[in-house]
Design brief:
The protein is of the alpha/beta class and about 400 residues long. The protein folds into two domains: about 120 residues, no CATH class; about 270 residues, Vaccinia Virus protein VP39 (Rossmann fold, 3-Layer(aba) Sandwich). The chain is built from twelve helices and 14 strands.
């Protein structure tokens, strides 16, 4: 009988993949040796016109994403469902199916009603649920979609990025325990959110709509941008689309007025502007800091080919670092790894993961930091920062300077 229930679930799963009815699959209760593995999420995508299924292996501090063709997807899942994972929740256009194993290893299979989605390619359907129809006016005003709601020419990557950002934000907010709590819980004050260096405000509008329209959590969202014409345009669209809790203001990341924050966002802030944003978020007591670094140039001179008297590790790397491309990539890694370690020292739990596929942008790394309870600046975290800096012979770095951390 247990085998029959598992096979019945797999039959429904195979049929949904074959017919294209699969919306998403969530596997939980991992049984393998990886102690930090939490879930596996599977959903359909279309890559360069070819149907694929994206597997997102969610670990405690990282996500691993792999794409598989439909036939391989079925084979992979047959080896996982009920064996490596004791919880499987399947969503299709026809109905839902849930296979759960208890502590004795006994399965239980239940079916439910289908979930409401638009009937297009599943790649589009999954994204359509992230933002409500109320988001369409600003998407059109910013040129992302047309008057009919279709993605505008040349804006497919931006449209994909917006929806991916909201998807990621929903997971991060849950981890930061922001739901139902504003800065002043007693009087129901809205959350305070700042998007630093927001540009045209694509993700600023998306953050506003996620909190206020999707999560139903009142949030005051501010976009900070240096260029006044973009600030004026953002405020005009916010007014025209009736978003009183959204505003844009002129300024730099370093000079913007920030009092207390719940969430700080800074995507693609160039070079040390990302460090400015992280430092501002820490000083404002943000419970969630989300950055996507760009153009990590500051440390590159410190990673130049080193003489024998320099750090031994860097001397070993010296012959390779004579090549500019290796030096650039090592600088990117060292910069962002050091930022993550400094955030850990400052009292945050960090995740570093791929934002969107490199197929759509090369600048796809995201650092998410959730403020933890307890003392910051633990000796072990400080030692990890200094050991890493010593390995790369890093003597100075922007975020460390702003946090008064002596490398």
């Amino acid at each position: 009988m247990p085998h029959d229930l598992r096979e019945k679930f797999l039959t429904h799963l195979r049929a949904s993949v074959q017919s294209g009815a699969l919306v998403k699959l969530t596997l939980g209760k991992p049984q393998g040796a990886e102690a930090d593995l939490r879930n596996l999420f599977v959903r359909p995508v279309t890559l360069r016109g070819t149907p694929q299924y994206t597997f997102v292996w969610r670990h405690a501090t990282r996500d691993i994403t792999k794409n598989h063709p439909p036939a391989d997807t079925v084979q992979q899942l047959e080896r996982l469902v009920g064996l490596s994972f004791h919880s499987a929740h399947l969503f299709t256009t026809e109905r839902t199916a849930q296979l759960e194993y208890n502590k004795k290893g006994e399965p239980r299979l239940t079916f439910g009603q289908s979930i409401a989605i638009d009937v297009q390619s599943e790649h589009d359907r999954a994204k359509a649920r992230l933002l409500t129809r109320d988001s369409q006016p600003w998407l059109q005003a910013l040129g992302v979609t047309t008057a009919t709601g279709a993605v505008a020419a040349g804006m497919a990557d931006k449209h994909r990025q917006i929806h991916k950002f909201v998807e990621i934000l929903s997971h991060l907010v849950a981890g930061a325990q922001l739901a139902g709590a504003g800065r002043a819980d007693s009087d129901g004050a809205p959350l305070e959110i700042a998007d630093m260096g927001c540009g045209k405000g694509y993700l600023t509008f998306a953050a506003h709509d996620y909190f206020n329209l999707v999560a139903r959590q009142p949030a005051r969202v501010r976009g900070v941008e240096l260029r006044p014409e973009l600030v004026e345009a953002g405020n005009r669209i916010a007014r025209d689309t009736r978003r009183p809790l959204l505003q844009f203001e002129a300024g730099t990341i370093a000079s913007a007025r920030l009092d207390a924050l719940d969430v700080l966002i800074a995507l693609h802030a160039c070079d040390t502007a990302t460090d400015d944003a992280i430092a501002r978020g820490i000083s404002a007591g943000a419970r969630l800091i989300v950055v996507a670094p760009c153009c990590q140039k500051e440390l590159r001179p410190q990673l130049a080919a080193a003489p024998a008297t320099s750090a031994q590790a860097l001397s070993v790397l010296a012959p390779a670092l004579r090549h500019g491309i290796f030096q650039e990539r090592q600088a990117e890694f060292a910069t962002d790894a050091l930022r993550a370690l400094l955030l850990e020292w400052a009292g945050y739990d960090t995740k570093v993961f791929e934002f969107v596929s490199t197929e759509h942008t090369a600048k796809n790394l995201m650092i998410a930091a959730t403020k933890r309870t307890g003392a910051a600046g633990a000796a072990e975290a400080a030692r990890a920062v200094r050991d890493f800096a010593a390995f790369y012979n890093i003597k100075t770095q922007a975020l460390a300077r702003q946090l008064d951390f002596d490398l």
